[in-house]
Amino acid sequence: MQLDRLTAALALGGCFLVLPQPTAAQQWQLDMGGNSVAYDTTGYVRSASIAPLLAWQRRAAYATLGGAFAEFAASQWTSQGHGDLSVLFAPAGEASRFRTEVVGAVDGSVHSGGYRAAASRGELRLHVVGRSAGFWAGGTAVTGWTSSSTGITSALGPTAGVWGRRQAWNLSVAWMPYRLEGYWFNEAQGRASTSIGRVDLTAYLGGRRAPSAAAIPNTAWGGGTLAVWFTPQVALVLGAGTYPSDLLQTLPKGSYLSAAIRLSRHRPPTWAPASTGHALYAAARGASELRFAVPGASRVDLVGDWTGWQAVPLQRAADGRWVVRVRLEPGVHRFNLVVDGQRWIAPEGSAAVDDGFGGKTSLLVVP
Amino acid sequence: MRTLKLLSVLAIVPGLLAAQQQNPVDRLRAVLPADVADKVIAIVTNATSHGLPGQAVANRALEANAAGRSGSEVSGAAQSFASDLAGGRDALQHAGRTPDVSEIEAAATAKELGVDGAAISTLASSAPSGRSLAVPLAVIGALVNRGLPSDDALKAVLARLTARASDANLVEMPGEAGRLIAAGHKPGDVGRALNTAGRPLGVPANSGRPAVRPTTPSHPTRP
User: Which residues of chain B neighbour A176 with C-beta distances below 8 Å?
Assistant: First the structure.
C-alpha cells in the first residue's frame, strides 16, 4: 500500500518533470488546500489535497498536464492525473476564419482501496473564428476502463459549440450528444468567466438527459470558482458546486466545497479590455467609434492629425465614457485628448510617443 | 433630449469634416505666423521633393503649434520629423524595398518609439512580399513602447506575418502584450509568448476536456 501511495505521488510529481524547463509560453500552478465532498452514496468527507498543473503552448499547439493527490481520514488516499493536447491548423491560412483542431486527452485515477479507472478522448473540431465570437462542430470518440470491469467501454458522438467574449467576459456553450452501450445521451455544458480587478470568477452549468431505458436518471450540475490574486503569483481559490457521475469510469456524482492557496508562475491572462476600455487598437476600417474613460473631466476634446490638430468635442456616453465617431484612413495616426480645455493627455493604456517637448502624443493604428 | 443630442452631433460634424478636408499646408498658412509658415513650408517642400510624405511633416508642425510651442520649436519639430522620415526610408530601402509614404511614416514612428533601424531593415527583408509594412511597423513600435525588447517585438510580428495574420490581428498585439504584462509577465517573456500566432485568442483552450468541469481544487478527488 505504501508503495502504491509512493507510486501515485511520484507520478504526480512527474507532471513537473516531464516537460522541459518553463518558457514564456508555459504556465505552472500548484494548489494546496482542502476539499469537502459529498457523493450521492455518502455524506461529506474531507480531504487535504495538493494539485499541480502545467500548461504549455507553442504556436498552434496547446497542452496541459495535471493531477491531484488527496489524503482522507484513516489513511485513505486518491490520486488523479490528466493530460491533453490540442493542435489547431489553419488550412486556408491564418487570415481565414476557418480552423481545424485535433484533440487527444487521457485521464485516470488510483485509489488506496485498489480501484483504478482511466479514460481517453479524441476529438476533431472545425472552427469558424471571429474577432469576438465563434463556433465549432465536430466529432468525439471516448473510451473508459475500470479495474472492476472486464473490458473497455466506448462512446461516439458529434459535438458543437459556440464561444464569445465581450468586455472582460468569456462565454462558451458546448453540446455533446453521444451513444454509449446502445443508448443516446444528450449532454450540454456552459461556462462563463470574467476578471474584475484582482478577482477571477468562473461559473459553469450543465445537464445530461438519459433515455429512460438506460435506467440512469437525468442530471444537472453547476458551480463556480472565485480566485482572489494577492500578487501575480499567489491567490486564494474558493470553489463550490456539483458535478455529474462519470459513466465511462463509473465514478459517482457529487457536490463539493473547496479552498486552496494557489501558487502560480503568473496569473493566467484573461481577455479583458485595456484599463480605460477604449478601442485604440480595434478601430475598424471606415467609420469607427473611439471611447475614452477620463475620470473627473467635465469636458473632453480630441485633437489629432485627422482634425488638423483642431479641437473636436467628445460626447459623454451613458456609461460615463467620452465618445467620438471618426472615419480614418489605414495607417498610423497621432492624437491627444484635451481635458477641460487645458490639460493635454495621452489616454491611459495607449501607445504614446514623446512629443519632443516633454509631453506625450498617443498613437492610433488603423488596419 | 434626443433632438438636442442629434443637433449637437450635427453641429460637430461640419467642423470635423472641414478640419479633415483642409490641406495641411493651407492650415499652416492659416494658423502660423507668416515667417514660421514660410520656414515650415520650405521644409515640407524639400521633404516632398525627396520622396518623403510632406503632409506628415506639416501635421507635425501643426501638432507643435496646437500644443502652444514657439515658432522656432514648431519649425524644429518639422525639421526633426523630416529627418526621422528620411531615416525610416533609408532603413527600408537598405533592405531592398521601395517603400510607400505610409510605410515611411510608420518606420519613422517606430524609430521614435525605440525600434532600431536594423530591426526595421530585418522586417522589410523578411516580410512576405506584396504586404504593406505600415501596420506591422506601427505594431512593433507599440510593443517596444510597452517595454518589449526590439528584437522580441520584431520576431513576434514577423511570426504572425509569416503565418499570414491580418492587419486587424496584428493591431491586437499591443493590447495582448499589455494584458500579459499586467498579469505579471516580464516584458522580455511577453514577446516570446506573443510568438504563438496559431491559436486565435477566443477559441476555448480546453483541449477537448469538457470545459465546465472545474479544475483543481474545485474538481475534487474521489475516494
Answer: 210
| Chain B CB within 8 Å of residue A121 CB | yes
Q: How confident is the model at residue B196 (pLDDT cuts 50, 70, 90)?
A: low
Cα(A17)–Cα(A40) distance, integer angstroms? 36
C-alpha cell recorded at residue A242: 456539483
Residues in chain A closer than 8 A to B101 (CB atoms): none
Assess B79–A contact: CB distance below 8 Å, yes or no.
no
pTM of the shown model:
0.57
The pairing of strands A286-292 and A199-209 is unpaired
Instruction: Select from B77, B67, B62, B63 the least CA-distant residue to B31.
Output: B62
* Chain A environment of B169 (Cβ under 8 Å): 94-95
Alpha carbon of residue B208 to chain centroid: 37
Alpha carbon distance A101, B27 (integer Å): 55
Q: Which cell goes with A116?
A: 483504478
Q: Write down the residue that cell numbers 470635423 correspond to.
A: B16
Confidence band, pLDDT 50/70/90 cuts, at residue A294:
confident
Shortest Cα distance from B182 to chain A (angstroms)? Answer: 9
β-pair partners for A223: A204, A241
